[in-house]
Amino acid sequence: MANNYEVLFIINPTLAEDEIKAAQDKFINLIKENGEIQEINEWGKRRLAYPINDIQEGYYVLVYFAANADFPAELNRRFNIDDAIMRGMVIAREDAKVPETVAAPVVEETVEAAPAVEAPIAE
């Protein structure tokens, strides 16, 4: 029985464009061989939240797929071996439907004013 997963991997942007495309195709083909791809979102070059090996940007690729339960461990193993991949993460999804838009949630902070404290007036 196939489970639903999403994988986000970051390719080193210091590689040549053809090397980035080759790394992306390598992992997409690996997923195709071991499962069924539902959607591919190529985010492109984006700034990292923190530097990885003194690199400030990464080339992001998000893939939704269905595969057997043993495949994500193999995919993570291959991410760790390949020098072109800076980071990769596979997440199991409970829902079978692929989200239509992928966006970070907007977090609004509300700051409550502290209640005013009246000091006694010295006479």
What attributes does this structure have?
alpha+beta, Alpha-Beta Plaits, 40% strand, four-stranded antiparallel β-sheet, single chain, 4 strands
Describe the structure.
The protein has a single domain, classed as 2-Layer Sandwich (Alpha-Beta Plaits). The chain is an alpha+beta fold and 123 residues long. Helix content is 24%, strand content 40%. Strand 2 and strand 3 form a beta hairpin. About 4% of the residues have low confidence. The protein has a four-stranded antiparallel β-sheet with strand order 2-3-1-4, covered by helices on one side. It is built from two helices and four strands, in the order E-H-E-E-H-E. The radius of gyration is 22 Å and the shape is extended.
Give the full name of the CATH homologous superfamily.
Ribosomal protein S6/Translation elongation factor EF1B
Q: How is the CATH topology named? A: Alpha-Beta Plaits
What would you report as the Rg, rounded to the nearest angstrom?
A: 22 Å
**Helix share, percent:** 10-25%
Order of helices and strands: EHEEHE
Number of domains: 1
What is the CATH class? Alpha Beta
Structural class computed from helices and strand pairing = alpha+beta
Number of E-state strands: 4
Shape: extended
Terminus-to-terminus distance: 82 Å
Count every helix, treating DSSP H or I runs of 4 or more residues as helices. Answer: 2
Q: On the 0-100 scale, what is the average pLDDT?
A: 85
**Major beta-sheet overview:** 4 strands, antiparallel
Biggest sheet, spatial arrangement of strands: 2-3-1-4
* Low-pLDDT windows of residues: 103-107
